Amino acid sequence: MLKTLFFAFTVLCLFSCKQHTADIQSLDTAPVSDTLQTAVSTISYAQGFTIITHEGYQILEVSKAFPGSEKTYQYALTDNPSILPDSLQVDAIVKTPVQKIIVTSTTHIPSLEMLGVAHTLIGFPNLDYISSQKTRNLIAEGAIKELGQNESLNTEIAIDIQPDVVIGFGVDGQNASLNSIEKANIPVLYNGDWVEKSPLGKAEWIKFFGALYGKSQEADVLFKDIEKGYLDTKNLVKNITERPTVLSGAMYKDVWYLPHGESWPAQLIKDAGGIYLWANTKGSGSIALSMESVLEKGQDAEYWIAPGQYGSYSSLKNAHEVYSKFAAFQHKKIYTFTTKKGETGGLLYYELAPNRPDLVLKDMVFYLHPEVLPDYQPYFFTPFED
Q1: What is the pLDDT of residue 39?
Q2: Which residues of 55-68 are buried (b: 16+ CB within 10 A; e: fewer)?
């Protein structure tokens, strides 16, 4: 079951979920305070969090921490907790700027690096998943502790190293490890970047981390650069009339997993000037289909983006002979992100792609419409090996 969920999650991340960063929020509770509200941070694409600024503190609200979440989590951020109103009721209070942090998803790593605060990371579950060389150097220096697995954190170590905050993510809001950490009076905040449907919505969660470090202005500037790069590339193919058809995913056992039509992978294909063959399906997760139904609809697809864990035509054909019946296989039009790995095997795409949709989009445009970006060097995707 865990393997099946992991494979589906990989397909949903299209082409991944959990260093090249120089290229770069329905409230269901009563108002938290009568203090004058001075500003609401501008969140343009993300639907899962909001930042509200009051005099002397901010309220970070996370309304979509995981799929189906009905609770809006409220976190107070301040450099002086003593000034918080006595009437304030929140899920956690975080003293800012954060000096020591534990994060639990590799998608959190790029935000720390881009904001220049990677050195504050002191713990992470399964360090081998981290790809960024900058953070791997910190691991080599012993600055980041191994915390086991995300679903069963080593709470003894996590509590012992006394982080200012732990950033978790959850599938259903039930995590015994995070509950234990909270009982030790360590603030735990949910980050729902992976729940976002749009590519720029995922990337905008850098503002979540900016608020924790008193670097909201820096986060705004970084996101605007990513947004500009994404929209500029999208505009390059906006008026293109010849849009190739695209297939995605692959089989796990006898089930073919591919992205739903309302998912961020599907939006990326559309924005790159492609026609995703399952674009009309409803939902933002992954679809589980039979091999026969995918073959019937996708056999003539001109391109095949992110065929699961495979990286070569021979490995794909050896896994199942049916793969060789697809036109994209026969015409050598399959592209993968599996070749870009960190030194311990973590896939760079899983870590960085949600934060850098501008680079993902450029990669896709380069392959779907090579005449548009002739001098571009793809960052994540490479052609299949023979």
Answers
A1: 66
A2: eebbbbbbbbbbee
